[in-house]
Automatic annotation (TrEMBL):
CDD domains the record matches: Met_dep_hydrolase_C (cd01309)
Source organism per UniProt: Syntrophomonas wolfei subsp. wolfei (strain DSM 2245B / Goettingen)
Amidohydrolase-related domain mapped to chain residues: 52-375
UniProt GO MF annotations: hydrolase activity, acting on carbon-nitrogen (but not peptide) bonds
Name of this protein: Amidohydrolase-related domain-containing protein
InterPro entries, per the entry: Amidohydro-rel, Metal-dep_hydrolase_composite, Metal_Hydrolase, Metallo-dep_Hydrolase
Organism ancestry: Bacteria, Bacillati, Bacillota, Clostridia, Eubacteriales
Length: 381
């Protein structure tokens, strides 16, 4: 058993913050959380006096392990750009679990990620929910698959336009997505299906049955509106990815209770769809009642800087508690794992990080990271 003692615990739930608290960890789970009232003598004690203890942060959209930083083609497995419709691909099959970014993530307090294919395709494949530390690389898969990645906008147009193939326009983007969903919906009504087609359509069927969300890349307001129309037509669980101009269609998002995984924000306006990129968007979404979580889109923003994005949004008007929620409780809830992750509570998984100062202070460092009760040890040291 492990006892973390003496720190200020930001529980991120109704318990609020606990000064001079004690967290007992047994195996993979939190056994108890409370004020300092003693602990068993046989515990491994971690002294967190003068420090902040929080739940591990969750990056709900990135390409960690799929798009490696120090490689070119040999480490780039993020886009299978040979066919615009590839729902049967699984990101888990392209992950390099020794990617240097996993250690970087833990240095920034990020203990889990939803890693997914890129946005070259209309339907790119299935995301995988990863933990950033485990006893062996094979144990780093937390949930698989966990959502189906799709995309609208400029990226599919550019990739397939260069190949002189459909899609060349936003109209074709939407048409291909509709066609794939329509064909899969018809497959649902057949008594028998060929094994190959069942395999290729399986992820789409899960989306149509609301067994997994559609994670749809859309920056511009017009693409978000197209996504919402398709969501209405097929009655999907939709989460907008990026949402640079989501504040322009906030009423439509709120009406449908559609959330946004917001980011990357710590970037320049690298393409026309990024014209409105701003840290003020988070505050605007919060004021409009839109549910959101911050994302890095790693390696676009290095995954360890997830907390920096949240902090800069506070500078631009977002409530500090809401900013912390947007990297802890909100992604956990939106990804359907709030019973296990996102806050420091008895019975939840022991994903914990200790900072030597407030996590939004740029001078603060992670002094300990724990994933499923295992204390991170850097394999490179």
């Amino acid at each position: 058993m492990i006892a973390i003692t003496g720190g200020k615990i930001l529980t991120m739930d109704e318990a609020g913050s606990i000064e001079n608290g004690v967290i007992l960890v047994e195996g993979e789970f939190i056994k108890s959380v409370g004020e300092n009232e003693g602990f068993p003598s046989n515990c491994q004690v971690i002294n967190a006096e003068g420090k902040y203890v929080l739940p591990g942060f969750i990056d709900a959209h990135n390409h960690i392990g799929l798009e490696e930083e120090i490689y070119r083609s040999e480490g780039d497995d993020v886009n299978e750009s040979s066919d615009p419709i590839t729902p049967y691909l699984q990101a888990a099959d392209g992950i390099n679990f020794h990617d240097l970014a996993f250690s970087d993530a833990l240095r920034g307090g990020v203990t889990r990620s939803l890693s997914m294919p890129g946005s070259a395709n209309i339907i790119g494949g299935q995301a995988v929910f990863l933990k950033h530390w485990a006893g062996s690389p094979g144990e780093m898969i937390y949930k698989n698959p966990w959502g189906l990645k799709a995309a609208l906008g400029e990226n599919p147009k550019r990739v397939y336009g260069e190949q002189k193939k459909t899609p060349l326009t936003r109209m074709a983007n939407a048409s291909l997505l509709r066609e794939a969903l329509y064909v899969a919906s018809k497959e649902m009504t057949k008594a028998e299906r060929k094994a190959r087609e069942e395999y290729k359509q399986g992820a789409l069927l899960k989306v149509l049955k609301k067994k997994m969300p559609l994670l749809l890349h859309a920056h511009r307001a017009d693409d978000i509106l197209t996504a919402l129309r398709i969501r209405d037509e097929f009655d999907l669980n939709l989460i907008i990815q990026h949402g640079t101009e989501a504040f322009l269609v906030a009423d439509e998002l709120r009406k449908r209770n559609v959330a946004v995984f917001l980011g990357p924000l710590l970037v320049n306006r690298a393409k026309v769809e990024m014209k409105e990129v701003s840290f003020k968007t988070a505050s605007a979404l919060a004021q409009a009642g839109i549910d959101f979580a911050f994302i890095t889109d790693h390696p676009v923003i290095p995954v360890e800087h997830l907390r920096v994005c949240a902090a800069l949004a506070v500078r631009e008007g977002l409530d500090e508690d809401m900013a912390l929620q947007a990297i802890t409780t909100s992604p956990a809830r939106l990804l359907g794992v709030e019973d296990e992750l996102g806050s420091v509570r008895q019975g939840k998984r022991a994903d914990l990080v200790i900072f030597d100062g407030h996590p939004f202070d740029f001078r603060s460092r992670v002094v300990l990271a724990m994933v499923d009760g295992k204390i991170w040890g850097n394999r490179r040291e």
